[in-house]
Amino acid sequence: MSASSKRIDQIAGHLNYPRAMLAGQVAIITGAGQGIGAETARLFAKEGARVVVADVDASRCLSRTLTRKAHDVATSINSSGGSAIAIAGDVLDDAYIAALVQQAADFGHGKIHILVNNAGFTWDGVLHKMTDKQWHTIVDVHATAPFKILRAAAPYFRVKDGAPRNVVNISSTSGLHGNAGQANYALAKAGVVGLTKTVAKEWGPQFGVRANTVAFGHIATRLTGAKEQGAFVTTPDGEKVALGIPQAVKKSGGAEHADIPLRRAGTAAEAASAVLAVASPLFGYVSGQTISVTGGRNM
Asked: Catalysed reaction(s) (predicted)?
């Protein structure tokens, strides 16, 4: 049987789930304490990955809730028969990034196979009123932090051991098309696309690393919920940043989801499924691409 035939049989076998698609792989998922990140962590674990749940620590938030969420996700995975650890910290902290990568490698017995750069939040403002702090915080969280994590994890990806290696950077339609009130977020998420392509070109030829971007549209999370619900993130210096979209702004757009062909928001589980697909053997010959998960929006 030819190598290509064997590969086709292997993929066909995965479609029937005779074994987990990510069996034996170690995956770091940032921002995995809730939302899309948490769903991705659970889904990866179901597919056999050993998951590192990374999320903000108590010193960077007014409540311990976020920290407990990371540990709760890991606990739920372990109690369901999977394998996970929670490593709490702030991706804006260089010391945390170093510790995250080292502890993940220890958890994986010296191996890391998948990195999903998902952590982030929005801090919106119209261009002429946006502060330097708003700008730099969002650019640092969404662009600088993924770069630093990739740089720290490079020794575990630039290896020739025959095992698959995947980088999945999370972007947004704001990064692909721009969005009013999100100059900082749009620039950072556009930058992620360029970062992904660079990783694919630098680490693909010798080491076989695949790198792709998943750009989400309207996914039902705390970032797209009603601002009046009170969700917030706290910056490193203690400033409270409200999350979500004001109800008045949401209603001003006319019929809800009218610009989405499927006429609904996506779920966090659907978003996570897209990340799994990109990281799985089913996308084994896909690298350097941006996969839009939008329900048809912006096509």
From this structure: a (3R)-hydroxyacyl-[ACP] + NADP(+) = a 3-oxoacyl-[ACP] + NADPH + H(+)
Could you tell me how many residues make up the chain? Answer: 299
Contact 287, 265 (CB under 8 A): no
Rg (CA), the chain: 19
Of 96, 156, 185, 285, catalytic? 185
Contact predicate 132/140, CB 8 Å = no
Residue 179 lies in a domain: yes
Give the three-state DSSP class for 60. helix
Measure the CA–CA gap between 200 and 195, rounded to whole angstroms: 9
Query: What is the mean pLDDT of the segment spanning 152-165?
Result: 97
Q: How far apart are CA 38 and CA 56, in angstroms?
A: 13
The answer to whether 55 and 65 are in contact (CB under 8 A) is: no
Backbone phi, psi, residue 130, to 5°: -70, 135
> Could you list the residue range(s) of the whole structural domain that residue 215 is in?
3-220+267-292
DSSP alpha helix (H) spans, 143-279? 145-157, 173-177, 183-207, 247-252, 268-279
Q: Give ∠ CA 158-33-173 in degrees, rounded to 5.
A: 70
Residue 102 belongs to domain with CATH number: 3.40.50.720
> Taking a C-beta distance cutoff of 8 angstroms, is the pair 156, 105 a contact?
yes
Query: What pLDDT does residue 230 have?
Result: 55
Give the total number of structural domains in the chain: 1
185 is catalytic: yes
Residue 286, pLDDT above cutoff 70: yes
What's residue 220's pLDDT?
Answer: 84
Indicate the helix (H) or strand (E) that contains 46.
helix 35-46
